[in-house]
């Protein structure tokens, strides 16, 4: 395993370094302390040609100015919280809101906007980049001082493991994710519509007004949301399903049927032969297909096109604190939060 560094940019008069973890199989992962953002993941295709298979802007200035969430650590809570409000232990909390009166992805200054501390670890069969950050009580409206650690571990088995740890000194919420976008062609100017996706999931979350969860988990069998067999992403994204039309693609949570580290999703792209195999301890994965062109910034000379990437965001179901059947995202002072997600990079045989 190998770890290298290079200068990436300046933030608040501090130098931001990009760290790159590389294994002997030609796979590398790069990330920066700003937002604990993964800047790129390079893997070989079926012919051994290496390319970056993720979507990201090319400068720290664009990350700060436009906050595209590409590759970022999202929190304290991923997704939307209705009206930025919740009630826990009889107390109503009003969080800072930042999208249509709701809180999205942790608020106006979420974990993806912070400069984390970084350290590295290099072992025989893996290398790690370990980010830590203390989110002070009141940040984005959340109670409790929250200490968070996120470890990105790249293994010789071509696995990217994300290990989250957190604890708080007052009851709060915590439901993080990584907002990585994959484009397995290695060319972000090609859409992901011809990627294939298989999910070990039989239910998805319905969306309503303001893209908020309705609280309904619908059986996906026979619908555009049925990925029980591997199928082209375009079959869902270009369908006439009203839920698809609502957001011009996928922006939906899927309930995962398998636990205990089993395979829960397989994303593949035939021409390159690349595939990503997902396993997680979380109960849900949010699939988002970059449903709008982003013309506020450019990547390789062009705006980020509609359907330029696809996310596999592992988490507990969005807005769980306001939906009784969605899971528990409350973190108490006597608890330590642990969660692990693994993406394995393979070539189709």
UniProtKB/TrEMBL annotation:
It catalyses: alpha-D-glucose = beta-D-glucose. Keywords: Carbohydrate metabolism, Isomerase. This is Aldose 1-epimerase. It holds the Pfam family Aldose_epim. Its EC number is 5.1.3.3. It comes from Marinilactibacillus psychrotolerans. It is an enzyme of class 5 (isomerase). Belongs to the aldose epimerase family. InterPro entries: Ald1_epimerase_CS, Aldose_1-epimerase, Aldose_1/G6P_1-epimerase, Gal_mutarotase_sf_dom, Galactose_mutarotase-like, GH-type_carb-bd.
């Amino acid at each position: 395993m190998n770890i290298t560094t290079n200068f990436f940019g300046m933030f608040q008069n501090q130098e931001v370094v990009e760290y790159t973890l590389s294994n002997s199989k030609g796979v590398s992962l790069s990330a920066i302390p700003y937002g604990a953002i993964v800047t790129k993941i390079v893997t070989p295709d079926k012919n051994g040609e290496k390319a970056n298979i993720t979507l990201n802007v090319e400068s720290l200035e664009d990350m700060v100015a436009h906050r595209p969430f590409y590759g970022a650590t999202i929190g304290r809570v991923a997704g939307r919280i209705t009206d930025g409000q919740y009630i826990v232990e009889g107390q109503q909390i009003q969080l800072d809101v930042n999208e249509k009166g709701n809180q999205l992805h942790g608020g106006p200054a979420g974990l993806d906007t912070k400069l984390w501390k970084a350290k590295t670890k290099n072992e025989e069969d893996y290398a790690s980049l370990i980010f830590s950050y203390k989110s002070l009580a009141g940040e984005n409206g959340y109670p409790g001082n929250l200490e968070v650690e996120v470890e990105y571990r790249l293994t010789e088995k071509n696995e990217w493991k994300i290990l989250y740890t957190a604890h708080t000194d007052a009851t709060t919420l915590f439901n993080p994710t990584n907002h990585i976008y994959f484009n397995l062609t290695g060319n972000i100017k090609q859409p992901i519509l011809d990627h294939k996706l298989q999910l070990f999931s039989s239910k998805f979350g319905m969306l309503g007004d303001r893209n908020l969860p309705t609280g309904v988990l619908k059986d996906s069998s026979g619908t555009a949301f049925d990925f029980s067999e591997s199928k082209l992403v375009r079959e869902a994204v270009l369908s006439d399903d009203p839920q698809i039309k609502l957001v011009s693609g996928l922006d939906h949570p899927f309930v995962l049927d398998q636990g205990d580290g089993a395979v829960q999703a397989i994303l593949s792209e035939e021409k390159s032969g690349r595939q990503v195999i997902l396993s997680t301890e979380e109960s849900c994965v949010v699939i988002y297909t970059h449903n709008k062109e982003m013309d506020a910034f450019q990547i390789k000379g062009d705006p980020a096109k509609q359907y330029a990437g696809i996310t596999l965001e592992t988490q507990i179901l969005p807005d769980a604190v306001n939906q009784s059947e969605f899971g528990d995202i409350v973190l108490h002072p006597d608890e330590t939060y642990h969660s692990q997600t693994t993406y394995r990079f393979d070539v189709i045989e």
